[in-house]
Amino acid sequence: MTSDTVDGDRGPVASPVGFDAGPRLELDQLLRQLMDRAQDVMSAQDRLRELLAADQLIIADLELPTVLRHIVQAACRLVNARYGALGVLAPAGGLSEFITVGVDDETIAQIGPLPSGKGLLGALIDDPHSIRLRDMSEDPRSVGFPPGHPPMRSFLGVPVRVRDEVFGNLYLTEAASGEFSAEDEELVTALAATAGMAIENARLYAQAQRRQRWLQAATQITRQLLSEEGEEPLAVIARETRHMADADLVTVVLPTGEGNRLMVEVASGTQAETLAGHTYPVENTFAGEAFETGRPVLVRDAADHPQRHLHLSKVLPAGPVMILPLVGTQRMRGALAVGRRRGRPPFEEADLEMATAFANHAAIALELADARDHQKRLLLLEDRDRIARDLHDHVIQQLFSAGLTVQSVLAGRHDGMHRDRLASVVSSIDDTIRQIRTTIFQLRGQLGPQVGTARSRILGVVAELTPVLGFRPRVQFSGPVESVVPELVVDDLAAVVREALTNVAKHSGAGQAAVLLGADGDQLTLEVVDDGAGLGSATRRSGIANLEKRARRHRGTLRLTDASARYPTSSARRGVHLSWTIPLNQPATAHLAR
Asked: Residue 77 has what pLDDT?
C-alpha cells in the first residue's frame, strides 16, 4: 500500500511501503496489553511463590506456640505489612492469647494490657468474615488506640478456622503500599486456610505427646506403688496428676465412715497444706456426682455453677475443673479433683479422656498395692498367730499350773506372813496371765478383722499417745471384754482413754500409767491410773464434764480418787485414779440417749 505527499517544490513523493497509522497504533496497544498481562502473570507468579513460602514457614514446625508466631510472620511478609497479630479466641468470649509481630517488647510494655477483643477486633470476633479498610479511623467500629500505641491506618482482618471452628483472627496493619488490595485479602485468606490445618496438626501432635506422657506417668505410678519403699501412694498420684494436667491444685477426696461426707485425704499444689483434712457434705457437689455415676465430670468454669459446692474454691479461685473417679474392682475408692485458676485455658475432652485413663490405671495400681500389702499382713498375722498360740497353749497353761500348785500350798496350814506372801505370788501370776493375754491380742487382733473392737481401739489410742506421754502405759484387759461390750460403747471408751491420758501428759508429770478394762458380770469398768502430781486444785472440769456426760449417757458413773492406794509410789506424789463404770444389762435404747 502507497500514498503521496507534497515535499516542497518536488511535488508528490511516494511513502515507503508499510502500515497505516491506525493499525500501527492498534498493534502497539495490543503489544503493550500483552506485556502488561505478562507482567501481571509474573507478578501473580511471584505472589504465589510468596504464598508457598509462607505456607512452608507455617507447616515447618509442630509446636503450637511456634506455629502461631510463624503464621503472623508469614502473613506480614506475604502482603508487606508492618504490623501483624493473631488473636486466639477464649471459650468464654474475648481473646485468650494475642501474638504480635512488628512491635518490640518496650512498646508492648508501654501499651499495657493486651486487647480484650473490642472495636474492630471484636467486630471480627462477632462476625467472622474478612474486613479490609484503607483507614481504620474512618470506620465507626474503631475505638482508637491506647497511649503509647504505634499509629496505624490500613487494616486487614481475616478469621482463622480449624475445621468448622473459628480458632482466632489474623490482624494486619500498615500496608507498605498505603492500603491492602483485594488480592492481598485473597492471599491472606488462603494463608489462613493453611494456618488452620497447621494449627490442627499442631494440636494433634500436642495431644499425642500429652498422651505419651500420661502413659509414662501411669507406668511410673504402678512401678512406684508396687515397690517395697516409696511415698504414700495417694500423694504420688496427686502430684503426678497435677504435673501432667498442668493444674494449679489437685486433691484426692475419700468418703468418710458415715458415707455422707467427703474428706480431702491428700492435696498437691496451691495452699495444699490448708486444704488437707478438710471435710464437706457429699450432697450437691461435683465429686458427689462422680461418686454416684462412676463417670468423670468436666467443668469449663466453676464460676458458672455457684449452686455446686467445690472444695477447691476454699483456697483457689477455681475455673476449669476435672473430677476423676478412682474406680476399684469392688467399690469407688475415691476421686481426683483437678483444678486450674479462673482465666486459664479450660480442659478439653482429650484432656479428660487421658486423665480418666490415668485415674483408672492408678486405681488398678492401688488395688495391686493393697493386695500385696494384704498378703504381707496375712503372712505377718500367721507368724504372730503362731507365737500367740504357743503363748496360750504352753506359757499360760504352765502359769495356770503353777498358780494352782501355789493355791494348793496356800490351802495348808501356814502362819499369816507366809499366807500373805503366797497370796501375793498367786496375784502376781494372775496379773502375768492377764498381761500375756493382752500381748496375745496385740499379736493377733491389730491385724485381724476385728478392727473396731474395744481392745483394738484402746490399744490404738495408747499407741497414738505414747510419744506424747514419753512412756508406754501398761494396758490390761480382764473378763469377756470382746463379747459383752456393745459396739455403741466402743467410741466412748476410746474417748475416755484419750481424754484421761491426755490429761496425764499435760498436767500430771507422771512417769508411769496404766489402762485397765474389765468386764465383771453386769458391769464394765475402765480405769486409768497414774503416779503423777494428783488431783490438786485444778480438776480440769471441761474434760471431766465430758467424761461424766459420756458415763451418764450409758447410765454409768465417773469417779476421780487418790491413786496412792491403787498405785503406790515411793514419793510424796499421789497420782490420780479415774474409774469410769457403766452397766452392761441396760436396754438397747439407753445407748442412744443424748
From this structure: 85
